[in-house]
């Protein structure tokens, strides 16, 4: 989940630890907003309670209960690991909001928010890969083992993680600790973005929203449009649970992250107005008062997937107990591909049944990833 100065992004500082006398257009700290910080802390507590055990259960189900790891389960495993790791870090942000002061030092200030940022990119990129994989499975069902083989999937995911850690660097550079004062005049430490120039703000948040939301969602939407067009061209009319599950993941991620990126764009827009402009003051007030809550909401996306999987696999719970999620992913009764020699329509339908059905427990594609 999770950023280009993500979560509890608290308005800006100076090159190192500076005092509140330093003039800055982002001078009001978000931790000074009692309502926003309280609500944000409550949301994050809920996220910890649901997200940590939920994602650990997904990892355990895939690693310990599934013999053959499909491309789909491999992507889900990476997503669960990323989300579970983020959930483990959430306790630091709860303490930050509760104490309204950053007590963990400069290195943790930079490092934790950097890791949150990598989670945001990793989550949306993995979801995008899921959507592209479904596209390949539906449009090229007889070639999916070649185009989207487990070996290729491994290489793509490794490359994705390298890219994620590189493009998250701005959240490491543009963040530092600033000395602030609470309502009683006592000093407190604020871990927040360090934007010394307006163009830094415009670059970081615009880049974050375009690369971490707009472009991936454009690919996802295009993939599903092509999938629907392909399904209409064939005789394949079954309601596919795996398609619905992945679509639910896509929609859920978008709903929880959309407010965060709207606030990003509001902050970027504010930088185009003079500091004494009423419009600038109005826009600054909106993003400053909303940042903590929208960042906390974004965290929810990292604990929502276990809930979605539980609903998708509820029919297996009574029969399989704690192994229900493995049963959901594994594909123990995938339909068999028919022999060669069938016509194109028949072959396409068989391929679609084979690669996207989990109605009978299928996970999405044959082939080990391990």
UniProtKB/TrEMBL annotation:
Where is each G-protein coupled receptors family 1 profile domain found? 54-309
Q: Can you name this protein?
A: G-protein coupled receptors family 1 profile domain-containing protein
Q: What is its main location?
A: membrane
Q: Which family does it belong to?
A: Belongs to the chemokine-like receptor (CMKLR) family.
Bilayer-crossing residues are: 39-62, 74-98, 118-140, 152-174, 205-227, 247-273, 293-312
Tell me one Pfam family matched here: 7tm_1
Disordered: annotated segments: 1-26
GO BP terms, alphabetized? inflammatory response; phospholipase C-activating G protein-coupled receptor signaling pathway; positive regulation of cytosolic calcium ion concentration
Identify the GO cellular component terms for this protein: plasma membrane
Q: Which organism is it from?
A: Knipowitschia caucasica (Caucasian dwarf goby)
Q: How does it sit in the membrane?
A: Multi-pass membrane protein
Q: Which domain of life is it from?
A: Eukaryota
Protein keywords: Cell membrane, Disulfide bond, G-protein coupled receptor, Glycoprotein, Membrane, Phosphoprotein, Receptor, Transducer, Transmembrane, Transmembrane helix
GO function terms (MF aspect): complement receptor activity; leukotriene receptor activity
The family database entries (SUPFAM superfamilies) matched by this protein are listed as:
Family A G protein-coupled receptor-like (SSF81321)
Output the Gene3D superfamilies linked to this UniProt entry. Answer: Rhodopsin 7-helix transmembrane proteins
Localization (cell): Cell membrane
């Amino acid at each position: 989940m999770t950023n280009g100065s993500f979560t509890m992004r608290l308005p800006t500082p100076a090159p190192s630890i500076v005092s509140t006398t330093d003039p800055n257009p982002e001078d009001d700290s978000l931790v000074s907003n009692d309502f926003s910080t309280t609500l944000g802390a409550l949301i994050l507590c809920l996220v910890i309670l649901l997200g940590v055990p939920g994602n650990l259960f997904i990892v355990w189900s895939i690693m310990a209960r599934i013999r053959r790891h499909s491309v789909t389960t491999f992507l889900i495993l990476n997503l669960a690991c990323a989300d579970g790791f983020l959930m483990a870090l959430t306790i630091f942000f709860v303490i930050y909001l509760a104490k309204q002061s950053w007590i963990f030092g400069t290195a943790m200030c930079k490092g934790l928010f950097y890791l949150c940022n990598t989670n945001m990119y990793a989550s949306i990129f993995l979801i995008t890969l899921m959507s592209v994989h479904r596209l390949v499975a539906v449009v090229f069902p007889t070639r999916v083992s070649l185009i989207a083989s487990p070996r290729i999937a491994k290489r793509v995911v490794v490359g994705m993680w390298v890219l994620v850690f590189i493009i998250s660097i701005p959240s490491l550079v543009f963040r530092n600790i600033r000395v602030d004062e609470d309502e009683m005049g006592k000093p407190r430490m604020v871990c927040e973005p360090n934007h010394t120039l307006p163009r830094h703000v415009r670059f970081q948040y615009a880049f974050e929203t375009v690369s971490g939301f707009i472009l991936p969602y454009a690919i996802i939407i295009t993939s599903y449009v092509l999938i629907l067009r392909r399904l209409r061209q064939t005789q394949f009319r079954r309601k596919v649970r795996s398609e619905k599950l992945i679509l639910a993941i896509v929609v859920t991620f978008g709903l929880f992250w959309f407010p965060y990126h709207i606030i990003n764009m509001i902050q970027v827009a504010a930088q185009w107005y003079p500091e004494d402009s009423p419009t600038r003051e109005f826009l600054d007030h909106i993003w400053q008062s909303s940042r903590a809550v929208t960042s906390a909401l974004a965290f929810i996306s990292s604990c929502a997937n276990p809930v979605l999987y539980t609903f998708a696999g509820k029919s297996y719970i009574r029969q399989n107990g704690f192994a229900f999620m493995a049963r959901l992913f594994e594909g123990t009764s995938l339909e068999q591909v028919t022999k060669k020699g069938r016509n194109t329509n028949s072959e396409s339908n068989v391929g679609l049944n084979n690669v996207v059905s989990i109605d009978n427990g299928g996970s999405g594609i044959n082939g080990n990833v391990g």
